[in-house]
Amino acid sequence: MFKLKGSIKISGDKSISHRALIFASLCTGKVKIANLLESDDVMRTLKILRELGIKIEKKDKNWLVFGNGTGGYIQPNQALQCGNSGTTSRLMIGAVSSNPIKCTFIGDNSLSKRSMSRLSVYLEKMGAKIELTKKDFLPLHIKGDMNLLPMEHVMQKASAQVKSALILSALNLRGKTKIIEKRNTRDHTEKLMDYLKVKFKKKVLNKNSTSIELNGPYEIKPRNINVASDPSSAAFFIVGALIIPKSNITLKNIALNKTRIAFIDVLKKMGGKIKIKKTKTLSGEDVGEINVIHSLLKGIKISSTSSPYLIDEYPILSVAASQAKGLTTMKGLSELRHKESDRIKSIISNLSKIGFHAISKKDDIIIKGSKKISITNRVKIKTYGDHRIAMSFSILSLLYGNKLIIDDESCISISYPDFKSHLETLSILY
Ligand code: S3P
Hints:
By secondary structure, the protein is α/β, with parallel strands linked by helices. It has helices at 14-26, 40-51, 86-97, 117-125, 160-170, 188-195, 231-243, 262-269, 307-310, 314-322, 343-354, 387-397, 419-426; strands spanning 2-9, 30-34, 55-59, 62-66, 80-81, 102-106, 129-133, 137-143, 152-155, 175-181, 200-206, 209-216, 225-226, 248-255, 273-282, 285-293, 301-302, 327-330, 357-361, 364-368, 379-381, 404-406, 427-429. It folds into two domains: 2-11 and 229-429, Alpha-beta prism (UDP-n-acetylglucosamine1-carboxyvinyl-transferase, Chain), CATH 3.65.10; 70-219, UDP-n-acetylglucosamine1-carboxyvinyl-transferase, Chain (Alpha-beta prism). It is built from 13 helices and 23 strands. The strands form six sheets. A five-stranded mixed β-sheet has the order 15-16-14-1-23. It has a four-stranded mixed β-sheet with strand order 3-4-2-13, covered by helices on one side. A four-stranded mixed β-sheet has the order 5-6-8-7. Shikimate-3-phosphate binds at residues 15, 87, 159-161, 164, 185-186, 311-312, 335.
């Protein structure tokens, strides 16, 4: 028998790491970044910035980025490879759009099936010249222009990536850009702009909706950035500790950004014993410790209004639901179909294969929890190359004597290269 026990510092946050690199590249001088997540996705952003003429070096454990100012990117010599990273592609397309350079963005098979028109429609309205493959996909060619027309955008779909791309574009444009979010999304870009003293106006329009107004162009003074640790990565061990008897863990340095830790409220409602203690603020983000002990979970209904705040945690919440008493219903998950894999399909097909009653109805997922399932023969879990599916089922596998065989674990390095070693550190045999 074994349990999860002890305390670790989780790796840097993926969303904040991308933004730390990009904003550092837009500063007028040297920025030191600490606790940068060195995952495949983040390294894609780093390499693209180098292609755009930004000097970036590693010194000891930190990264030094020599910013060239807004509008400071130079013409790259080759296509910009985004790999599997949606965040790299969307944010960098926005960032280059207001620079007088021509760029081609490419990605791996999964990314080449994900929509880019959800961003390009706004940039095209501003006057950017963009060619997409089959009107929606990478490879994407863009001719940037510092004279794009700043304007008001009303965001139809909830996407922090698209919002951030439009903000990055606006930083080098002369005049006012206004972005209205009908449904609020994660706000790391705004938090980092506050920290870097980039002035913008944020208005709360109602409980779910916000507007952001920028007036460019901006000169951003360098300031060192310390990246808070990733709550979405912590979520795997949090659920692990909840479902494995006798577990008791403390995860340190975690970003406690409200737009990211909604999954903790969900798990608490399910009966999870989780305590959060704020310890400090790191580069504009609240940070703290999370303590979790094994708990008996019960199924609940998760409404669609929280979906932008839970977007990356549905796979691991599904694992929690599989161990809860009764039914868990997760509503309004249409965006899950447009992630690294069709996550509705990846979740349902794998849980069903193990023997759980898990179905999708339109864009909802319904899971009936059961602790009675025993696995005699090995079950092969298909990750569809999706890092969050691989890690979620690796956690579930702990309950079944590792009889769940993950077909491809290599994708884990996309967001959390230290996942396995951190899991080993927390695993105690007794
Ligand atoms: C991210 C935003 C989310 C999330 C992704 C990272 C970001 O995407 O799924 O992993 O860093 O802005 P959307 O907001 O586009 O859904």
